[in-house]
Amino acid sequence: MATTLTTTAPGVGTTGTTGTTGATDSTERLAGLLVAFLETGTPPAGLFHPDVFCDLTVPYWRLQARGVDGLVALRKNGHPLPGSVPRHRLDRTGSGFVLEVEERWEQDGAGWYCRELLRADVTDGAVGRLSVYCTGDWDAEQQRRHGEEVTLLEP
User: Given CA atoms 106, 2, 121, 126 in this order, what sign does their dihedral have?
Assistant: First the structure.
């Protein structure tokens, strides 16, 4: 089960607050659908606008796609297998939301890890533009080395 991280700034990016509006419910619904897409590689109905544009930045490279099929192909080219999003944080913006995620997946018998920021602009109730900033994929050796050399203050 994923852990949702929330901000502590009043009125900014909090989840699970009382008195949520329809826009808040829609944002949380779309964010949940986006997490499901990251975990499965299959976009749930209603997640993406048919003409969605995706701008993906990875270390030392930048890729783009237009349309749902192009976005799915871009995703599967980089992360072809299902995985999990053990932690995520949702912050609302005036035009949509920002989602911070950790991803984990198995490939060729090894565990992989990455962190991403996804900025989503909502058009007609669906994600119309998606900008993704990825740390790069860490293999088991990189994760081991990081664990030995760095002590994180928070997960």
Answer: positive
